[in-house]
Amino acid sequence: MIKAILIFNNHGKPRLSKFYEHYTEDTEQQIIRETFHLVSKRDENVCNFLEGGMLIGGSDYKLIYRHYATLYFVFCVDSSESELGILDLIQVFVETLDKCFENVCELDLIFHVDKVHNILAEMVMGGMVLETNMNEIITQVDAQNKMEKSETFIFQSTRQDR
Amino acid sequence: MHMLGYPAHFGQLECLKLIASQKFTDKRIGYLGAMLLLDERQDVHLLMTNCIKNDLNHSTQYVQGLALCTLGCMGSSEMCRDLAGEVEKLLKTSNSYLRKKAALCAVHVIRKVPELMEMFLPATKNLLSEKNHGVLHTSVVLLTEMCERSPDMLAHFRKLVPQLVRILKNLIMSGYSPEHDVSGISDPFLQVRILRLLRILGRSDDDSSEAMNDILAQVATNTETSKNVGNAILYETVLTIMDIKSESGLRVLAINILGRFLLNNDKNIRYVALTSLLKTVQTDHNAVQRHRSTIVDCLKDLDVSIKRRAMELSFALVNGNNVRGMMKELLYFLDSCDPEFKADCASGVFLSAEKYAPSKRWHIDTIMRVLTTAGSYVRDDSVPNLIQLITNSVEMHAYTVQRLYKALLDDISQQPLVQVASWCIGEYGDLLVSGQCEEEEPIQVTEDEVLDVLEGLLASNLSTPVTRGYSLTAIMKLSTRFSGVNRIKKVVSIYGSSIDVELQQRAVEYNALFKKYDHMRPALLERMPIMEKTATNGPTEIVQTNGEMEPSAVEAKHPPPVSQPTSPANDLLDLLSGNDVVPVIQTTLPSKPASAGGDLLELLGDISLGGGPAPTPAPAPAPAVSSTQPAFLLDGLTSQPLFNDIAPAGIPPMTAYNKNGLKIDFTFERANPNPNIAVITIHASNSTEADMTDFVFQAAVPKTFQLQLLSPSSNIVPALNQGSVTQVIRVLNPQKQQLRMRIKLTYTLKGSPVQDLAEVNNFPPQSWQ
C-alpha cells in the first residue's frame, strides 16, 4: 500500500502532498520536512530507495523517489509494493502529467493543483494502484474535463439569457 | 486543518455544500476538497454519507467515479458500513471504468471493516474473466487483500490458480499490444500483481506451487533484462519462487538471477538483489555462498544503503570455512566506514569471531583490531565478554597483555580498549614485567613504567569514571604481583580523598586493606579463575550478591565490581558473629529447569570447599581466610552440618520456626542427579490476622556447605493460613556433615517491620546422611 505521495521542489517547498493514512497536520508537515532532508542529501548516482523516516513509522516503510529537474517525486510505500514497480509508476505519472499539461513544469503544478489531484486520483486510489495505462487515464481525465467545460458553458449561456 | 501548510478551516462546510450541488464542476472540487481537508476525526464527514450514497447511484459515470474515489480514500468505518452495499452493486456492473474503482473501494472497505469481506465474495466470481486490464489489475488487488486477511478466503481462491496462470501466459505470449506496452513488455504492472497473488496462493500449498512452476520458469527465462521493467518482473518472480514450495532447480535459477542482478550497474537493482538475498540466505545458504565475492565487493560501494545491506549479508554468510577471509574484508570495512555502521559492524565481528574463531590467537587479534579501530563504538557488554574470553585462553595471557600494553601506549582515548587493557595489566602484570612471551618478541617493561601508564590513565581527562575505577583496581592488584608496594600505597592513599565517590570508596577500602587487613591482601588479589562461558547473547542473570561471597560463575561477567575486597553492610554477615564469612549464595535465577541449577552447583562442586586458597571465582576472603586461619571462620558457628543428599521420599518434614504467628516448615526431596545436593522446600504460613508483606527469608550455613536459594513464590504471606510462600533451597554437602542452619526472617506486619533470627538444628538425620 502506498502511504503517501509527495512532490516538492529543490528547496523543500511541497507542491503536492497526498496522504492515504490519517496523520495530524503537524505530523504531515513534519513528514514532508523530514523526507525532504533525507532525499536532498542523496547523491545523483545512488539508488532510489531510502529507508528511515521515523514518523511514517516502522521499519516496513520505504521511500522511493525520483528527481526530475527541479522536483522530487516521493512515494512512501510499505513492503507489499514492488519497489521497481513503483519506480515505473512514478515514470508513468510524470509522463501522464506531461501529456495533460503540454511540457509540464513546476508552475503548472502550482497553478493547477486540482487538476494534478484529479489525475492522481485516476491512478492511485486509497493507497492502491488503480490504473497504469497512460492512454486510459488521459481519456478519462479528458472526458471529465469536457463535462466541466460543458457545464460552465451552459451556466454562462443561461446567465446571458436573463 | 492545513493544506500545504496554510490554514484551511473554513473549507470544510463549503466542501459539503459543493458536493451537494448538481453541477459536475462543483462536485469535482467539492470531493477533492473533502479528500484533502476532511478525515475520520472530523464529525463533519458523516454529513457526506448521504451525498455519496446519492452520487453512487447517479446516472453519470464520472460522478459515480468521484464518489467511489472519495469513499475509497477517506471513508470511515461507519460510512463504509452504510455504503458497502452500493459498492458491491457497482462491482457487478459492466462498466469497466466503474468496476475498477469499485474494486479498490471494496479493498478500502475491507480494510476498515473486515467483517464485510464475505459480502464481496459473490461479486468476485467473474472479476478475473474481464478483458480490461484496469479491471483485472484492481481485481487482483482485491483478491490479494482478501487472501491476506483470511485463510478461508485463501483456500477458496486457490482454485483460481490455473486461471491466473493462463492470464499471465497470455500476457507474455501475446505480441506487441500498444495500449499496455511499457518499454516493450506488455503490462508489467499486471504481471507483477499476478505474480504477487500467485505467491500468496502458493505459499504453503504443494498443488498450487506445482501448477505455477512452469509459468514461473517461463517468465524467468523469457523476460529481457535490459530495462528496469524487465528487472521488476524478474525480481517479483524471484520473490515468488522463494516463497512457494518450488522445486530446487527453480530455486537455483532464482538465486542465479539475483546473482546477475548484483553485477548490474544500476544501483537500484543491486539494492533490490541484496535485500532479497538477505531474505533467502537462511534457507538456501549454499547457493548464496557462490556469490560471496560479489557481495563483499558491494561493501566498497559508495552508496550507503547498499553498504548496509552488503554488511548484513556478509555477516550472515560467515561460516567456519571462510571466516578468515571474510573477517579481513570486514575489518577493512570497519576501518573505512561511516560511524553509523561501526557499532553494528563491531558487534557483528565479535559475534562471528566467537562462533567461528579458528584459533584463540586469531580471536584475540581480531578483537584487538576492532578495539583499536572502532573502540569507542563497541557495545558496553563487549568489555566483560572480552575479559572472560581472555581469562579463558590461559596460554595467551602473556601475549595478550603485551599487545594490550603496547596499544595503551599508543592511544588512551578509546574507553573499552583502555578498560580491557587495564584489567589485563592488573591481572597479568607479572607476566608483562618478566618478559616472557612465546608468540611475539617480548618487550622489556619495568614495573615503574607499567605503574606510570596506569597512573596516567587515572589522571587523564579522557578517562571516564568507569575506566578510572578499572585502573585503580588494576594498580591495587599489582601490589601483590609487583615488588614496589610503596608507590602503590601512595597512589591509593591520594585517591582516598578524590571527589568521585566511586574512586574514593575504592581507594579507602584498598587503604584499609593495606593497613588493617594486610594479611588478607595476597589471597584477595589473586588471579581470577577460569570463568564458565554462559550464553553469548543471553541476558545476564540478576544476581543478588552478598558482597564478596558468591562462588557462582554467572556473576563472573563483572569482575571489577566483584573484586571489591570489602562490601557494604552484608545482611547475612550479621547473622554470624564477627567477621566470619560463610559462602552463602543467594541467587535469584530466572525460572530455569533443575538441570541448569544442577550445572551451577556442579561447578561449585569443583571448587574445593574444605580448604585451600584455591581458585574461587570471586576473591572471597572466606576461603582465603580459612586457609590461613581456620578457627577464624568458624567462630560462632561450630561445625555445622549441611543438608546432605537425602534418602528418597520418606524423610519426614519438620518445622523449623514457629513464633509470633509465622510458621516455617521444611520438606525434603532428593536432588537429581548430584547425590550431594539436598533440595529443601520451605513453606511459610501466617496464622495472624494481618498479611505479612515484604517477606524475605535468608539462610546461612557453615563454610563446608554451599547453599543456593531460589526465588520465592511471593513476598506476601497471607493471613490466617490462607496460603503460604514457598521457596526452594538447594544445599551442597559433599562431606556429609551434620546439617545446621541459621535463618533470618524479615517482614512487615501491620505496618511495622519485624526481624528475627533463629537457628535450625533439628534436621532429621536422613537429610544429611
UniProtKB/TrEMBL annotation, chain A:
PROSITE patterns: CLAT_ADAPTOR_S. It is a peripheral membrane protein. Keywords: Cytoplasmic vesicle, Golgi apparatus, Membrane, Protein transport, Transport. GO terms for biological process: Golgi to vacuole transport; intracellular protein transport. It comes from the Eukaryota. Residues 1-147 form the AP complex mu/sigma subunit domain. GO terms for cellular component: AP-3 adaptor complex; cytoplasmic vesicle membrane; Golgi apparatus. The keyword Plastid does not apply. Pfam families: Clat_adaptor_s. It is found in: Cytoplasmic vesicle membrane; Golgi apparatus. Part of the AP-3 complex, an adaptor-related complex which is not clathrin-associated. The complex is associated with the Golgi region as well as more peripheral structures. It facilitates the budding of vesicles from the Golgi membrane and may be directly involved in trafficking to lysosomes. In concert with the BLOC-1 complex, AP-3 is required to target cargos into vesicles assembled at cell bodies for delivery into neurites and nerve terminals. Belongs to the adaptor complexes small subunit family. This is AP complex subunit sigma. The lineage of its organism: Eukaryota, Metazoa, Chordata, Craniata, Vertebrata.
From TrEMBL, chain B:
This is AP-1 complex subunit gamma. SUPFAM superfamilies: ARM repeat (SSF48371), Clathrin adaptor appendage domain (SSF49348). PROSITE patterns: GAE. Its main location: membrane. GO terms for cellular component: AP-1 adaptor complex. The lineage of its organism: Eukaryota, Metazoa, Chordata, Craniata, Vertebrata. It comes from the Eukaryota. InterPro entries: Adaptor_Complx_Large_Subunit (IPR050840), AP1_complex_gsu (IPR017107), ARM-like (IPR011989), ARM-type_fold (IPR016024), Clathrin/coatomer_adapt-like_N (IPR002553), Clathrin_a/b/g-adaptin_app_Ig (IPR008152), Clathrin_app_Ig-like_sf (IPR013041), GAE_dom (IPR008153). Pfam families: Adaptin_N, Alpha_adaptinC2. Keywords: Cytoplasmic vesicle, Golgi apparatus, Membrane, Protein transport, Transport. Residues 649-764 form the GAE domain. GO terms for biological process: intracellular protein transport; vesicle-mediated transport. Belongs to the adaptor complexes large subunit family. The keyword Membrane applies. It is a peripheral membrane protein.
